[in-house]
Design a protein that fits this description.
The chain has 123 residues and is mainly beta. The chain contains one helix and seven strands; from the N terminus they run ββαβββββ.
Length: 123
């Protein structure tokens, strides 16, 4: 007998990265390689599990190299992103598929392989 995997819905809050943070992302990522401006995510979405926190997080740019982490931004409900920070990658991997989590270390909620963008039907 197989068991259906329980999936949790993502937050999905969307926002646009302010243009001044695009240059900041390239500057911060420079020590990890030379990212191109098109590599910087501008249309951001919070992919964390639905949460009660007012703060949302979004990946802005993966950094080149092993164990370098990624550039993330966060914003509150009524604000736009104001800063970037380098956060280490979550080290969790799905035990069955070995798919690594795409979030940052110590993120709240479920890991990416446990999430769905589709609405979860209530029973």
């Amino acid at each position: 007998m197989t068991h259906a995997k329980t999936l949790f819905p993502i937050c999905g809050q969307a926002i646009r990265l302010p243009e001044h943070l695009v240059g900041e992302a390239i500057r911060l990522a420079g020590e990890h390689g030379a990212p191109d401006e098109p590599d910087v995510e501008r249309d951001l979405r919070c992919y964390l599990q639905i949460h009660d926190s007012r703060h949302h997080f979004a990946l802005v740019l993966d950094l080149a190299g092993a164990a370098t982490g990624a550039l993330w931004t966060r914003w509150a409900e009524a604000d736009s992103p104001g800063a970037l920070e380098i956060l280490p990658d979550c080290s969790y991997a799905d035990p069955e598929s070995r798919e690594p989590c795409s979030e940052f270390a110590n993120h709240p909620g479920a890991h990416t392989h446990q999430l769905t963008a589709a609405p979860v039907e209530s029973s």
